[in-house]
């Protein structure tokens, strides 16, 4: 038992080409969460033991990449688009082993592109973009902000146009993320709007911790905006 590997193989079947392949998963016992950032990014004691590295499944045969959040249904014409845009250009790569953070980022980008071409839900695409931003944050990369902005745009589309009631994401959680992401990309007025929407839902929401986080962040943002206004006047 002491020699148990942190990673184990899981057999998958590609939704697109239907061929089998293996993908890696991280055993829960090796994952030690130490906290989270205000945009809900989980932080782990060992950077290498990050389950986010293995969230995406990359088919080595055709290049189609997906997560458990992807639908197995392909809208008419999308299989042909995926074959043209991804499979025809695919050079086989092995993601069925231990991944570096850079390989993890690439797997998410492949999944985002696959999901975009397949017309996956905006909520699914938002989650992929946000995870890319989180991984870039661990690298202290300026690319983080670009993907935070992309995630914010996709969450906004989901909030305005998709039914969230049958998903694992409540409308309060989506609004909180919209607020927090807008803080991080410097669009404070938008952030205030969405934090206010969260607080309007506080009595009916079951996400009490999230409402408290929104209230704390709203106060912090308000104080920061006041300081900036005072600096501008002086």
UniProtKB/TrEMBL annotation:
Transmembrane segments: none annotated. Signal peptide: none annotated. SMART domains: TPR. Pfam families: DUF2225. TPR repeats lie at residues 172-205. It comes from the Bacteria. Keywords: TPR repeat. PROSITE patterns: TPR. This is DUF2225 domain-containing protein. The lineage of its organism: Bacteria, Bacillati, Bacillota, Bacilli, Bacillales.
């Amino acid at each position: 038992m002491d020699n148990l590997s942190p990673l184990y193989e899981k057999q998958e079947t590609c939704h697109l080409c239907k061929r089998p392949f293996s993908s890696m998963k991280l055993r829960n016992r090796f994952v030690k969460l130490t906290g989270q950032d205000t945009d809900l990014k989980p932080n782990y004691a060992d950077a290498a033991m990050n389950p986010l590295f293995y969230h995406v499944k990359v088919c080595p045969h055709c290049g189609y990449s997906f997560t458990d959040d992807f639908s197995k249904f392909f809208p008419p014409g999308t299989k042909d688009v995926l074959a043209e845009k991804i499979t025809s250009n695919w050079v086989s790569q092995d993601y069925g082993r231990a991944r570096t953070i850079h390989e993890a980022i690439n797997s998410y980008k492949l999944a985002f592109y696959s999901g975009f071409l397949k017309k996956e839900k905006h909520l699914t695409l938002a989650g992929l973009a946000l995870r890319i931003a989180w991984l870039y944050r661990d690298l202290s990369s300026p690319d983080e902000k670009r993907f935070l902005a992309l995630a914010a745009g996709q969450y906004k589309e989901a909030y305005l146009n998709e039914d969230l009631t049958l998903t694992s994401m409540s409308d309060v959680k989506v609004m909180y993320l919209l607020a927090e992401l807008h803080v991080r990309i410097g669009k404070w007025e938008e952030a205030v709007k969405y934090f206010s929407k969260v607080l309007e839902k506080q009595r009916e929401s079951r996400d009490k911790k999230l409402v408290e986080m929104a209230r704390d962040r709203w106060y912090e943002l308000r104080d920061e905006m006041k300081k900036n206004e005072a600096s501008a006047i002086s």
